[in-house]
């Protein structure tokens, strides 16, 4: 009888542990051999946005995200779009990944909680960063808040949450259009 109880408990634990593990890793849907690199590249992408290091950011942007612009043009347009007195686009300051959904083969939408600033005003809410595996590495086509006004981050606690209006990532970053 004791053995049976122990076996039932072990089976239950074996079923729960993988489920809990996948719930804590926002990249669990990404192939295991590519997860760590994606997390590291996302961290760098956010860092270069936060510090406005457009030269380094250029090296983290996908071919689609860059369009046909040169590094020099990219830097000039990012400076223009993210000015202090006037800005067309909010500047990404923080991004905490919550979940990842496959968009296309080799492309992933990473949803999470973001903080951004535009003309001195702070914005918080659910955002998405689009990651592409190309040239044997991870690159980003861009990022955006999912809705305006911004959806509160606590909505992400619902495992059934989906963006109301998914973003298409088949063109250059908004700042470059």
Describe the structure.
There is one protein chain. This protein is an alpha+beta fold and 177 residues long. It has one domain (36-176): Nuclear Transport Factor 2, Chain: A, CATH 3.10.450.100. Helices cover 35% and strands 28% of the residues. The chain is built from 5 helices and 4 strands; from the N terminus they run αααααββββ. It has helices spanning 2-24, 32-50, 54-58, 63-66, 71-81, and strands at 91-104, 107-118, 121-134, 137-145. It has a 4-stranded antiparallel β-sheet. The longest helix has 23 residues, at 2-24. The N and C termini lie far apart (69 Å).
Relative helix content: 25-40%
CATH homologous superfamily classification = NTF2-like, domain 1
Main sheet characteristics: 4 strands, antiparallel
Order of helices and strands: HHHHHEEEE
- Widest sheet, order of strands: 1-2-3-4
Strand content: 25-35%
Class by alpha and beta content: alpha+beta
- Average residue-wise pLDDT: 90
